[in-house]
Amino acid sequence: MLIDRSGAPRATAAGAVLRPYARRLLALLDDALTILAAGGTAPDAVARGHRAFREFLEQMNEARISRLVTAGLSAERAARLSALHTPNFM
Predict the structure, then answer these.
(1) Is pLDDT of 5 > 70?
(2) Hey, which residues does 9 pair with through a beta bridge?
(3) Is residue 90 in some structural domain?
(4) Would 45 disulfide with which of 2, 18, 38, 54, CB 3.0-4.6 Å?
(5) Looking at residues 6-15, what average pLDDT do you find?
(6) What is the signed CA dihedral for 6, 12, 17, 22, rounded to 10 degrees?
């Protein structure tokens, strides 16, 4: 996906073809990280793992916005750009 000058996403043909696969891969990654944070697959553990994973994603988002603001972007633009981010956990 490309970003135009206004900061809005612009779809590409390759993106349209790969999007369903990327969504499924990200869903599997979310599940794996939730279970890892949970320390098991018991329902109460998975609920805790889900909360911990969501908190982790929010912390990453806040840190990303902070770095973008430090780099000179407005808080609004930094938040919009951060919302487009796809977690890669590298």
Answers:
(1) no
(2) 3
(3) no
(4) 38
(5) 65
(6) -40
Domain range holding 45? 2-83
Residue 37 is assigned to a structural domain of this protein: yes
Q: Is 27 exposed, middle or buried (0-12, 13-18, 19+ CB in 10 A)?
A: exposed
Overall domain count for the chain: 1
Tokens, residue 53 = 């994973």
Mutual angle of helices 43-70 and 75-83, in 10-degree steps: 140
Residue 88 within any structural domain of the chain: no
Instruction: Summarize pLDDT for 33-81 with one digit per residue, the tens.
Output: 999 999 999 999 999 999 999 999 999 999 999 999 999 999 999 999 9
Distance CA 49, CA 41 (A): 9
Nearest-angstrom CA–CA distance, 34 and 28: 10
Token digits for 65? 């916005």
